[in-house]
Amino acid sequence: MRLTQAKIERIRRVNPDIWHLELGQVDESLFRVKPGQTLLARIVDDEGETLSWDPYLREQWWPLGMTGQKTLLVERAANPRYEPGQHISLIGPVGEPYRFGQRAKNILLLAYDTAPTPLTVMIPWLLRHSLNVTLVLLGRARRYNTDHLSAEVEVIRGDDDGLGWPDQVMSFGWADQMFTVVSPDDELLRFGELRQLALERKVAIPNHFIYGVFQPVTVCGTGACYSCALRMSGSARPHLTCVDGPAFDLLDVRLD
Ligand code: FES
């Protein structure tokens, strides 16, 4: 992980809610950033000085990967704060890449009450490797505009309330692996609801089947402050989202 600087070369408005920022002058250490790894970003001036302390902490950015023009693509919620030519201070890559089972063919992505960006960033990689992808959007995630996603992705929007969607049992049976993301306001509670749902809808939940992608407040991103610690079953040592995560097997995390 390194502290580096890049520049917003272009902004592509993929839909009214989602922008893709193309970062140029990216340090080589970020060329191989993988789905699941993030960047801690702050807008700075051309000398690297912070322009504003709002937000106080760096933002967690989810890169989609490098383009053919050696720019790094990042998905962000639409925000007029971002402009081409801006300099960005970056710390990263933070965390570990997502791990997919060697035999996995069908990947179920599920977002509950939050934007699915931590999940959608893996879709190009999954499709490139000929995996089948279904994206389930529940609660506030139902409002996420998916026009920019590949037509190869099946998108299911849930019922008006809670965790329901049609053919749930079939979805759980079809999936070889599942990655989920929930509203950061109470991740333990919401991941607990999803884990319970999986236990009720699937005959048996194997290890490495249902992963939660955690998004706690990331203060240092280096494993020094423990603000992102998670308690694990059968382990006295907490795991750190910024170092060991962001994805954890929900069977291993103590969600109580
Ligand atoms: S953010 Fe400081 S240890 Fe993870």
From TrEMBL:
Source organism: Phototrophicus methaneseepsis
Domain of life per record: Bacteria
Residues passing through the membrane, by range: none
Phylogenetic classification of the source organism: Bacteria, Bacillati, Chloroflexota, Candidatus Thermofontia, Phototrophicales
Protein name (record): Dihydroorotate dehydrogenase electron transfer subunit iron-sulphur cluster binding domain-containing protein
Dihydroorotate dehydrogenase electron transfer subunit iron-sulphur cluster binding domain location: 219-253
